[in-house]
Specification:
The chain is an alpha/beta fold. The protein folds into two domains: about 210 residues, 3-Layer(aba) Sandwich (Rossmann fold); about 180 residues, 3-Layer(aba) Sandwich (Rossmann fold), CATH 3.40.50. The chain has 14 helices and 14 strands. The strands form two sheets. It has a seven-stranded parallel sheet, with helices on both faces. Strands 10-11-9-12-13-8-14 form a seven-stranded parallel sheet, with helices on both faces. Strand 12, helix 13 and strand 13 form a beta-alpha-beta unit. Helix 2 runs parallel beside helix 3 and helix 6 crosses helix 8.
């Protein structure tokens, strides 16, 4: 283990790290930064919330600070691709904290915002371009950006880009980039197609892995409640009512479902908002800002919309609907227990979701502890050892007992409603 002072970073970066209170790197930073500083291509595997942005951001900025001259019009020296608008904005915000007071310029381009304004920003040139693949392709078609001077490429959350079908955009973007270049690919999971992507875009990469792919962060306490689908709303209200001041992220499967669930919670007096694909970028940004600041306590989201949420104070993640892609479960619960904190992930499993739970547990190689209801025999993955779990911060105990040691309610029973007045 080293500290940041031992890296030989540019003085401006060392000062920025001290200003924001970072002294010791996380495990992924500990392994990746020295290799990236040496110019190697990087294949980084780590759970969300482990500090991947600094793992590629620090060596990237250090290399750019060492290069003389400003970027030419319409060009960029480095390109960072991420799958969602929220994640692009999150990356850019983190990097701007590091580049404050330097000559390094950072531009973001995402869908849902004025493309004319983005054309104007790119006309001046930029050191770092952070983009979603779709909007970048639009700008390339307009000849608003020339990628021929890009010498550093970062693919963040690359597995999600594959899930969203961005592989075709990557195949069109990559040939337009400058060579030779350094490429860094980061992902929380390693599906087979990821190996093909790495072999196509990375040259003799150094593999950096701080945990097995598909494994959740160690400080996340997990549980699953077996419940009939009609009883899910009541169970959610019951759980939320036990800790009204905590920041809670609730995942729904569809845009319509997320919006309906949010409206129901607001009607029942909970301070809730939603983000999903039917919301404008401005609405999504305002909801995340309010959630980050704590003026909104419950944020209901779909997978894609929540991908860029990096809020250390998220105490609970509730999987109201189980995801159809097992790896998305890992990403979802990675929204809590960030930056060294602890967190709790609670899943609801209806009878028609048993197969989804089995696939999730097979991917994670664990059996998620039962927090309520009774686990059907068909939902017991024979290959997965049972994982121990500590007491629930919302009052539950392992094995489905409540804080008083009582047995869990039968599946489908109506949970107690929180004592809370409806909002006016």
């Amino acid at each position: 283990m080293f500290d940041f002072d031992m890296l030989g970073l540019a003085p401006a970066l060392s000062d920025a790290l001290k200003r924001i209170g970072f002294t010791e790197p996380t495990p992924i930073q500990n392994q990746a930064i020295p290799l990236a500083m040496a110019g190697h291509d990087i294949l980084g595997l780590a759970q969300t919330g482990t500090g991947k942005t600094l793992a590629f951001g620090l060596p990237l900025i250090d290399h750019l600070l060492a290069q003389p001259g400003r970027p030419d019009p319409k060009t960029s020296k480095a390109l960072i691709l991420a799958p969602t608008r929220e994640l692009v904005n999150q990356i850019a915000e983190s990097l701007k904290t590091l580049t404050q007071g330097t000559r390094i310029r950072i531009v973001t381009v995402v869908g849902g915002q004025s493309i004319s304004k983005q054309v104007m920003l790119l006309a001046r040139g930029t050191d770092i371009l952070v983009a979603t693949p779709g909007r970048l392709m639009d700008l390339m078609d307009r000849r608003a950006v020339d990628l021929g001077q890009v010498r550093h490429l970062v693919l963040d959350e690359a597995d999600q880009m594959l899930d969203l079908g961005f592989i075709h955009a990557l195949r069109k973007i990559a040939p337009r980039l400058g060579t030779p270049r350094q490429t860094m690919l980061f992902s929380a999971t390693m599906p087979k197609q990821m190996e093909e992507l790495a072999s196509a875009y990375l040259t003799d990469p150094r593999r950096v892995q701080v945990s097995p792919p598909g494994k959740a962060a160690d400080k996340v306490t997990q549980s699953v409640h077996f419940v009939n689908r009609p009883a899910k709303p009541g169970l959610l209200r019951d759980i939320l009512g036990r800790d009204l001041d905590a920041l809670t992220l609730v995942f729904a499967r569809t845009k319509h479902g997320a919006e309906k669930l949010m409206n129901d919670l607001v009607r029942d007096g909970f301070n809730a908002a939603s983000i999903h694909g039917n919301k404008s970028q401005g609405q999504r940004d305002r909801a995340i800002k309010a959630f980050r600041e704590g003026t909104i306590k419950v944020l209901v989201a779909t997978d894609v919309a929540a991908r860029g949420i990096d809020i250390p104070d998220v105490a609970y993640v509730i999987n109201y609907d189980l995801p159809e892609v097992p790896d998305n479960y890992v990403h979802r619960i990675g929204r809590t227990a960030r930056a060294g904190r602890t967190g709790e992930a609670i899943a609801f499993c209806a009878p028609d979701e048993m197969d989804l739970l089995i696939q999730i547990e097979k991917t994670m190689k664990i059996t998620v502890p039962t927090g309520g209801g009774e686990r059907p025999a068909s939902a017991l993955p024979s290959q997965a050892p049972r994982r121990k779990s500590g007491p629930s911060r919302r009052g539950g105990k392992p094995g489905g007992q409540n804080a008083h040691g009582a047995a869990p309610k039968p599946m489908g029973s109506k949970p107690m409603r929180p004592r809370r007045r409806r909002a006016a």
